Amino acid sequence: MNIPENLKYTKDHEWVRVEGEEAYVGITDYAQGELGDIVFLEIETEGEELAKEEVFGTIEAVKTVSDMFMPVGGEVLEINEKLEESPEVVNKDPYGEGWLIKIKMTNTSELDELLDTAAYKNLLEA
Fold first, then answer.
1. Is the pLDDT at 116 greater than 90, yes or no?
2. 63 FRET partner, CA 20 to 30 A, in 25, 33, 42, 106?
């Protein structure tokens, strides 16, 4: 299982890649594997300011629908439009082309509450 070192993780299996005041958010390799074939994403929060752990959208796989949660608070700046026509990209490349949203963080100190790679691996092994 792929767990990149340069990301932060949540207990809900989202990841964050920080780039200055902005960050990209997606679901982890573990999450996409557990969900199975992803068939649809519903993210209608572009332009909205959301708090940490608020739902920013849903992800639909063949067997289930799951909420996706904000790892840190911020404004949703952009939604990955490629996923509208090709949601399966999340299965193929969850940490690259399969990112879900780009946000402007409101409180970067919330990053300190997220899991690093070692802590996320421990969560999966528990």
1. yes
2. 25
